[in-house]
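Structure tokens please, single chain.
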Amino acid sequence: MTAPAGPSESEPSVPALRVRAVAHRGDPYRVRENTLASLRSALRRGADAVEIDVRLTRDGVPVLLHDATLKRLWQHERPLAVLSRDEVRGLTGDGVPALADALAATDGHRVLIDLPGSPDLRSVRRVVDVVRACDARERVYYCAGAETMLTLRAADPSAEIALTRTSAAPPRPALVEAIRPRWLNYRFGLVDRALADRVHADGLLLAAWTPDTRRAMRRLLALGVDSVTTNRVDVLCALRDASRRPGRRR
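Here you go.
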């Protein structure tokens, strides 16, 4: 891939900060998303963390899949919720990994688990139990909207949470108190200087998702975000690391 171009005069300069580079579902522009090969590819390209989507099979096994069905990625019109783990293996050629296998494949790296909307407490506890059984609690954190994160907080009082926000409006103080997030996780187009300053003034870390252009990434880095989730993690790493070189324009 061609090296990223330097910033134009009209683009904001990038401060020399270490921003967490999070690979969205692995390396999906090169390898099918949410597969072990995709996660490994992202880590080889410099990702600090990988973001994965986790759902449960009919028999309660947490596996990596963003959609509720196998249609988009695996060309089967079958809802995951009606399939056993063994049936998913058969339909996908063992292409959909279990969460336990993904945690083993990413050993030593941070993992951001994105949970689907409105899961019940029992389902969330299944995910938390696998993370604990894999001795991965110290490197796993979770993201989703408020309802899901309230359920997660009930399942694991000490979990690290990135509360996903789709509005620039600040979350209600009572909600923040109940969820106790470490991060606020915003759609990247919502992030501006005022929002970044407010989040940091509240003692929280700021995450943004999912910019894929160099211009959008540079803007976020210049605004002082703490983490960026992207489908092009190698591009993000190159921009971030270039900004730290001596003599580079800040």
